[in-house]
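To fix ideas, we reproduce below one chain and its tokenised fold.
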Amino acid sequence: MRSRIPVILLACGSFNPITNTHLHMFELARDHLHQTGQYQVIKGILSPVNDGYGKKDLAAAKHRIAMARLALQTSDWIRVDTWESEQETWTETVNVLRHHHDELLRSPPRKEGAKSGKASWRSPAVVPELKFLCGADLLKTFQTPNVWKSEHIQEIVERFGIVCLNRPGYDPLRYISESALLTRYQHNIHLVEDWKQSETSATQIRQAIRQGKSVKYLVPDSVIAYIKEHNVYPEE
């Protein structure tokens, strides 16, 4: 593992609420990158979107962050970051990546298990790569007019790179082949197959909760308890 490139995975999204699918996405991506033999994933960052995003039924950031923190209590490598949610308004994804990249340059994480004064990731030659973790549904939106700026897409795929989780009903290979820009940088787009081939979306979770249906085993128990205690998604 010493010769591998250290990587930090960053996922942006509503996480409204966070689900087991969101959590497993990180695990699948890490497994995939490790299996290439080129990378070592050392950290995962989950960045909930700002309230200014204005998405329908978007719970307040304070609730989404609290639920994410509860869900990640059992993870020893993924953490919630509040920078994006604490901005005055909605922040474009590329700016979130720039922020975390700048943070890495200012204070790279120490090598796992390194003692004080020993070798660490702080050497400029081994500053971790920051990669954008997303689903194939997001990759498809790169084709939608007026959703993304072309220069932002280029910066994301060229400067950072994408780890894209395939999802039922989507065809990421086609999205790449239909885009000259994505084709040019396809070497920096890692496509991850979801071996379980099933997914429950946060939208479905919210609908189930509002209808009084059980979401146990789809959402962490701690998150279910929080939703009930704070009535985050009132029943219809």
Observations:
- The two ends are 51 Å apart (CA to CA).
- The longest strand covers residues 39-48.
- Confidence is low (pLDDT under 50) at residues 112-123.
- Residues 12 and 93 are 7 Å apart (CA to CA).
